[in-house]
Amino acid sequence: MDDLLFSNEEVVMGTIDAVRRATGRDRAEWFALLDAWGAPGRRYREIAGWLMGEHDVSKWWAQKLIVEYEQARGLRPAGVRPDGTFEVSASKTVAVPVERLFDAFVNARQREKWLTDGRMSLRTSRPGRSARFDWEDGSTRVNRLHRQRAIEIDGRGGT
After folding, report:
1. 26 to each of 51, 73, 102, 137, how far by Cα in Å?
2. DSSP letter at 3?
3. Which residues does residue 37 pair with via DSSP β-bridges, in sequence order?
4. Which portions of the chain are predicted below pLDDT 70?
5. Is residue 89 part of a domain?
6. Environment class of 154 (CB within 10 Å of its CB; exposed 0-12, middle 13-18, buried 19+)
7. Handedness of CA 59, 77, 14, 149 (dihedral sign)
8. Is residue 57 part of a domain?
9. Same domain (yes/no): 49, 111
10. d(Cα 13, Cα 5) in Å, to the nearest integer?
11. Each residue's pLDDT tens digit, 75-94
12. Total domain count for the chain?
């Protein structure tokens, strides 16, 4: 029964079993190896190359281990990319056709009706699917992905 209880870190990071099954070691073992190798101060690509080349870790697991290692050691705050920029994401389900929602973003006149604080300039778009914008002075990017999905309304399917 004790193996069903996890620390807060294990809940946030995922179970030790998943890491061990995929890589042959648990996080504590990987973190100790990274410490001994001198990972702090090395570039992300160098660490990834070492994990993939010397330890046969997949690209996905290398990325996951590096991010979690750097966060655990206080080398990288949550949400920070390797180049020092931040990335955040959010999602929202809106009960309108995807085409109407897309137009509300890419059409400047429609956008002005609801986006009263700040300005976005369209960089590129794929009609009905995605749009990329510069926010204000261009130092921040806004990326929109639109997906149509079925929703349940009063037990009936809808789109």
Report:
1. 14, 16, 44, 45
2. G
3. none
4. 1-16, 150-159
5. no
6. exposed
7. negative
8. yes
9. no
10. 14
11. 888 777 777 787 777 888 88
12. 2
